[in-house]
Amino acid sequence: MPSHDLSPPVAPPVAPPVAPRSARAEVLAAAAELFSRDGYPATTTRAVAERAGIRQSTLYHHFASKDDILATLLEGIVAPSLAYAQRLLDTPDPVPGARLWALVRFDTELLVSGLSNLVALHQLPEVRGERFAAFRETRCRKAVVYRELIAPLEPLTEADLRLRAELVLGLVEGTAAVARECAEQDAAAVPEAVADAAVRLVAGNGCPADRLALIRSGARLL
Amino acid sequence: MPSHDLSPPVAPPVAPPVAPRSARAEVLAAAAELFSRDGYPATTTRAVAERAGIRQSTLYHHFASKDDILATLLEGIVAPSLAYAQRLLDTPDPVPGARLWALVRFDTELLVSGLSNLVALHQLPEVRGERFAAFRETRCRKAVVYRELIAPLEPLTEADLRLRAELVLGLVEGTAAVARECAEQDAAAVPEAVADAAVRLVAGNGCPADRLALIRSGARLL
DNA sequence: GTCTATAAGCAGATAGAC
DNA sequence: GTCTATCTGCTTATAGAC
User: Fold this and answer.
1) Which of B87, B123, B143, B172 has the lowest CB atom count within 10 Å?
2) Is A175 close to B171, i.e. CB distance below 8 A?
3) What are this entry's molecular-function GO terms (chains A, B) (predicted)?
């Protein structure tokens, strides 16, 4: 006898509209929000658990420690940035400065999109530990990419090149926190403004508006 | 009988070569160092007291709370910056951009001279409390000064002006932490490099090297 | 003003039942 | 995998002698 009437008359359950995040993902999301808002040391594992809808002790089935949560978060956030940066290195510059513009825009967008304070953590004392070596390593590689993108644009000594790359990084990271405050502003405009500023900052002989427009259009090809 | 042989044959004790800092000053110095190095929440009052050469409980004879120490520190650091900024506002620009250059240089020097992380604290969650309202207020006034120094340099909309001022602030604050890492670099050169970068960043039509040299020399008159 | 002693609470992490 | 219960240690801050 066919069992066709045992099959449900309605459509079988499909994925709910909101993705059914695993408990682990729920914890990461909660931690990202709280670490950003209140800072890492000030956020208790109890608060993270509560927001994730589980008990404090259950955290330790998914993560070895509080540090482990932070490290996972940081690595996951920095990874796309580095991937994009590496891709840019393999692409020729359509217009001189276009790749730099694109990378700064990408990074700033990453930072302002909800996790600004989190990425700003790279300069926090907590991240000095062994557990975060991989994260710091990634940040160093970012600095190298910036140097390689800037080098063809300006005749600079090695020291000046390093310095200017660090200035761009400082601008990106320093602006992230700032951007959150000015929520009044069109938040979408901030990453592009930072990218413009970075290009002007790097250009020793100035970067007039028309050349900047050229760079912007070149960056759209990347 | 004269007691002349009771008086010491050597010179009477004079003030020791290192200034005899009061206990309060000692605490502030210790806290500045530790808050900068390890972060505010991670620094215990015990550690501050130990470094200051007193017991933990004795702190509370000089300060009402741990927050009180931080607030005192922050206000003391930001005050000279604001004083200098206000003075600049009362002085005409010898060369367009000279005042901006001078202020950025001053602020960056303040930040890199040992207390970088401390000033970077302004964007930390801890400083959101009522106790730190005065500090936040000061920072806002700094932003206003930057706007007023930038406004005469470029024809900008109100929104763009605000944005560019925030970018300069972000650059200054973001670079501070960075500068510490590159101790290899001539640390003295960093503030001037940041000032150069700020001027280039602001200039919409570019700032060639010769004009920058002019600005630098103009800033020396301030 | 500095000390000893201690209060009162909360942190991160673990044990073990279900 | 999630829970309840709890351990252990450390935190800021206070009380009160000297």
Assistant:
1) B87
2) yes
3) DNA-binding transcription factor activity; transcription cis-regulatory region binding
Best of A43, A44, A101, A123 to substitute, by most chain B Cβ atoms within 10 angstroms, is A123
How far: B127 CA to C15 C1' (Å)?
Answer: 39
Contacting residues of A for B125, CB less than 8 Å apart? 37-39, 42, 117
Backbone φ and ψ for A113, nearest 5 degrees, come out as: -80, 60
Residue A37's identity, in one-letter code, is R
User: Do B116 and B200 lie in a common domain?
Assistant: yes
Q: How many domains is chain A built from?
A: 2
pLDDT tens digits for A65-92?
999 999 999 888 888 889 999 999 999 9
- Looking up residue A30, the CATH number of its domain turns out to be 1.10.10.60
Q: Is residue B34 part of a domain?
A: yes
Asked if A206 lies within 8 A of B201 by C-beta distance, the reply is no
Same domain, B143 and B168: yes
B101 has a pLDDT exceeding 80 = yes
Q: Between A51 and B6, whose confidence is greater?
A: A51
Nearest-Cα distance to chain B for A84, in Å, is 22
pLDDT band at A116 (very low <50, low <70, confident <90, very high): low
Residue of A201, A205, A211 best to disrupt the B interface, most CBs of B under 10 A: A201
Is the C-beta atom of A61 closer than 7 angstroms to strand D?
yes
Mark whether A55 and A81 lie in a shared domain: no
In angstroms, the Cα distances linking A22 to A43, A55, A62, B31, B184 are 22, 15, 11, 43, 46
- Between CA A77 and CA B57 the distance in angstroms is 42
Confidence of residue B154 (pLDDT cuts 50, 70, 90): very high
pLDDT more than 90, % of chain B: 55
Asked if B31 and B69 count as a contact pair (C-beta separation under 8 A), the reply is yes
Range of the domain at A81: 66-219
State how far the alpha carbon of B108 is from the alpha carbons of A50, B134, B204, in Å: 41, 21, 23
| Whether B171 and B118 share a structural domain | yes
For residue B191, list chain A residues with Cβ-Cβ distance below 8 A.
Answer: none
Kindly state whether residues A85 and A30 are assigned to the same domain: no
